[in-house]
Structures are given as structure tokens and as C-alpha cells.
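Reading group handout, session on sequence-to-structure problems. Before we discuss, look at one worked example. The prompt was deliberately terse, the way you'd type it at a terminal:

> structure tRNA(Ile)-lysidine synthase

The input record follows.
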Amino acid sequence: MAGLGPFGRAPALAIGVSGGPHSLALAVLAAEWAAGPGGRVLALVADHGLRAGSRAEAEGVVARLASLGIPARLLALRLPAGGGLHERARAARLAALAAAAEEAGAPWLLLGHHRADQAETLVFRALRGSGEAGLAGMAMARPEGGVLVLRPLLGVCPDRIEAFLAARGLVPVRDPSNEDPRFVRARLRRVLGAPGGPEVAALAEAAGAFALRRDRMRHAVAERLAAAACFEDAGWIRPDRAALGTDQVAHAALSALLRSLGGRRHPPPRAAVGAMLGRGGGSLAGVVWRGAVLCREAARCAPPVPACPGALWDGRWRVVAAPQGGWIGALGPGGPRGTLPAIVAAGLPAIRDAEGRILSVPALDGGARLEFCPVSGPIA
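And the output record:
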């Protein structure tokens, strides 16, 4: 934890706990660590509902944590049927954990991923055709919503974690789906062999090397964006095409801008980014680049949603305060624009009543308060 701080006095930590060996060990270790500086922990147990008895199992984990003096909260996930169930479950669980941590006032969310998980992730992404950023695997620390996700055990061999539990006399829950060959990750575990074996160690080391390259690219991208992009309060950008350049760093920088402005978690295809960079304009991933303007494409904005405090619209704008009963959606063409370019104004968030009358355009009149929440993700 020392290398992941600073945490200050009385840190508030949330911990994602499945009851399995690694998350259980993390919960015990984190609770003991937080007690030193007078902090607190909250374990978050997600019931994915993917198999019969999962609710009772999750309740049992909550009770087990309570017996160890670790407060815990149960989160119920409701996943619709469909393909990619395991991957969707992972994403839904992370989103629910982050939201619950933020709600509990815990700015750090700890997850129990370890060295073998890192090796598995590298192979899984390689099979999917990920680039260098994806092959860097999971980061020790990264933002998720309003919290910072930390993985303190990422470099630890799972055999050491099992030994720690045995020494404490703690018996974890074993999820049978982790060994179900119907799932890709379960099949990968069989191929990779023993979690403490040389194959896993080599793959984890490779992920670390890719992570170093990713970090260097991130620094280069940050420097390039500081020189080539002027970020405006209304959630749009003034790009300097000459300063942006056309090299690999420019590709990664433009990709990051498109993801943030378009509210998308994953970057657009590299070839499409390169084509847009070469043209110095165009439309891609819900973003339009025209001259000295890079902004959200109004026609691609999400449908209106109730403008309740905390609501996230279009993957980018979080409502802080708005007129009661209002709906938030795109302003659209022909609305008020102030001194903004028309193409920017059309994609601005606007608050309307049930009849469609404009109650506020926060960027222009301050009648409501919104936070711009750009999407974060890997540099690609």
C-alpha cells in the first residue's frame, strides 16, 4: 500500500470481496493496514445472480466478514441474458463496486487481482488482438468513476496468498465457474498451468514491460495534448493540427480525445484514427473535427434522461443540480448558442421540461450545475 499512496490520515477504503481466497486475504490485510492510521474499510460483496444459490453464498460472505470485524455490504447485480456473460458480469461488478465505494465516501477501491490474473489477462487480450496498451494488462492504480481502483496484490504469487490464509485458519469460498471449461478464462487457466509456475511468472513480467512502455506513452501524450489542445469549459476542444503532429504519439493523443468527447470506454479503430488525423478533420466515434473545433456530434448524443442529481448523461455529463422534473439531453440545432460555434452548441447538454421547453443550458446560463466526466481508459 505504501507505493500506492499517499492516503493521508484516517483513509477510507472499499474492498471488492467475492469470498474467494485472494479477495478474502485482501480484506483481512487491508483492514489491519487501515487500522494503523485510524482509517476504516467497507467490504463490498456483489451477488452476480449467475447461478442458483449465489444470493445465499454472498450473504454468507457478508456474515463471514462481519465475524472478522470487517463491515460489509451486499450489492445485487441484475444481468440480462446474452453472450459474453462472464465479461459483462466483470464490467457490471466493477461499475457497481465503484458506485458503492463513491456513495460510501471511500475514494479508494481495492481489488484482489494477483500475478496469475495478470498473466491470464495478457494472454486473453493477445488472443483478442489487443495492441501494446492492452498487453500491459491491469494497472496497479487507475480511475473508475469517482474512485481510484487499486490492486495491491497484483505482483503477488497466488501461492503466497493461499499460504497466508492457511496460516490464519481462514477457509475461502471457491467459485466453481472459475473451472468451467465453457468460459475462455477457465480454459486459459488450464493452459497456463500452475499459478506459481515459470510460464505465469514470465507472462506477468512481460505485462510489466508493456506497462512501462504504456506509461512512457502516457507521459508523451500528456505533453503533446498540453501543447496541441485547448480544453474549453463547455466540454469541447480547440485542436492545433500542426502542434498535434502525425506520429504515433499524435495517433494516441487523438484517440484519447475522441474517447473522452464521445463518452466511449474503448478507443476507435486505429486505422480510422489515422485517417482522421491525416485529413485533419471529419467525424468519428461520435465526435466531429472541423477546423479549430473538436466536439461531440449532436446527432450521436444519447437520448434524454431524467435530470436527477447524480445522473450521468451521454457518458460524459453528471448532474449536480437541476430544476425539478427536468430532463437532460442535447440542445440540438437552432437553440441558444451565446458566443459558441453552432456545431458545439448543438451538442451541449440542455435541461428541458416534460413538454420540451428549455429550462436551462448550463454552459450558457448557469441554471443547472453539471460536471464534465471524460471517459478514462488505456492509451491506444
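Points for discussion. First: The chain is about 40% helix and 20% strand. Second: The chain has three domains: 2-210, 229-296, 301-372.
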